[in-house]
Amino acid sequence: MNSGTPFLSAHASAADWQIAAGEIVQKLEGVGSAHRLGFLYVTDHFSAYLDEISIFLRQTLGVPHWVGTVGFGVCTTSQEYFDAPAMVVMVTPIPEESFRIFKDVSEDITSITENHKEWLSGPFPPLTVVHGDPRNNMVGDLIAEISDATEGFLVGGLTAAEDNFVQLADEVTDGGLSGVMFSLDKVPVQAGLTQGCSPIGETHQVTAADENMLIELDGRPALDVFKEDIGEVLAHDLQRVGGYIFAALPVTGTDTGDYLVRNLVGIDPESGVVAIGEYVSAGDRVMFCRRDHDSAVTDMKRMLVDIKKRAGNSPVRGGLYFSCCARGPNQFGDDSDELKMITEELGEFPLVGFFANGEISNNRLYGYTGVLTVFL
């Protein structure tokens, strides 16, 4: 990577994409021939124009390669845009031999393993930035397959849109996964995951289940265990748990305490069954968690301190942040507090990302999390 050429970012909000894109170009002074790859994220308002926007930016800025997608919100340094027509852009001085763009990973990963077989044969596993289509029910399996095949680390998120679930991988695509792989020997990075929920109660063993229905936990009716964990006040008014209490599935084989958060789908007081947004089997482990502002702030600080420690004395040159669309103003407040926390801990640097319909970290699809990647 060209250490003398800076990462550059810009953002704009306007009713017309032409005006916003024009502002982006004006703000991105200093773009040169070393900037070979750009990231572009737009809010749903501009989703129908992602192709036109990328062509305009390619022609006016001279940056040949672009990746990105659509979010219910987009984020940049110390600022987020929600429910507004906006776009964020970052151009990077990463040489073309150090990255490979892929697309159309919808049923298998051969477009990665075959098309980039020679490039992947190098001694260093890649960091892969992934954008996915939430309508494809295979995305979770495909993410794991990419991780296994490349032996690398994945970061990213699923497109969040009302109608146009489009991604950008040199051209507009949809239906599966797309993104860019970086060679870590040439592109040093650090990445972290922060949870938006905190566990309550103990971890329980599933002793009886049917598809996504928890029937027994620890040999007792699942609803009885659930009520004990959430406390007497909520247990007397189960209507209040929606959007506040969730199920969490601990990630096996990890020493970081990670867990996958899944929605509560339904509760049947008569049978004592609790339904969640994931298939489970007897022998699995599950716990319950709550989503609140304080726990999210605490864990965000933990992640940022950890990334800062791992970065050492290396300055952060640029960053990507993928956050759940239920975070942002819904959890941190409406003054871009989530993004400001990044700047407060790591300093000011070019940063772009979007608020996603599911977040990708390492080899799994998460929910209600934030995934930060910094280039050093």
Description:
By secondary structure, this protein is of the alpha+beta class. It folds into 2 domains: 243 residues, no CATH class; 94 residues, Elongation Factor Tu (Ef-tu), domain 3 (Beta Barrel), CATH 2.40.30. The chain is 24% helix and 39% strand. A hairpin with an 8-residue loop joins β17 and β18. The longest helix has 19 residues. The termini are close together.
Topology summary:
Elements: E1 8-13, H1 17-27, E2 37-43, H2 50-61, E3 65-71, E4 73-76, E5 79-82, E6 86-92, E7 99-105, H3 110-113, H4 117-120, E8 126-132, H5 139-150, E9 153-158, E10 167-169, E11 172-173, E12 177-183, E13 189-195, E14 197-210, E15 213-217, E16 220-221, H6 222-230, H7 232-235, E17 245-250, E18 259-262, E19 264-268, E20 273-276, E21 285-291, H8 293-311, E22 318-324, H9 329-332, H10 337-346, E23 351-356, E24 359-362, E25 364-366, E26 369-375
Parallel strand pairs: 2-3, 8-9, 22-23
Antiparallel strand pairs: 1-6, 2-6, 3-10, 4-5, 4-23, 7-12, 8-12, 9-24, 10-11, 13-26, 14-15, 14-21, 15-16, 15-20, 17-18, 17-21, 19-20, 22-26, 24-25
Helix pairs in contact: 1-2, 8-10
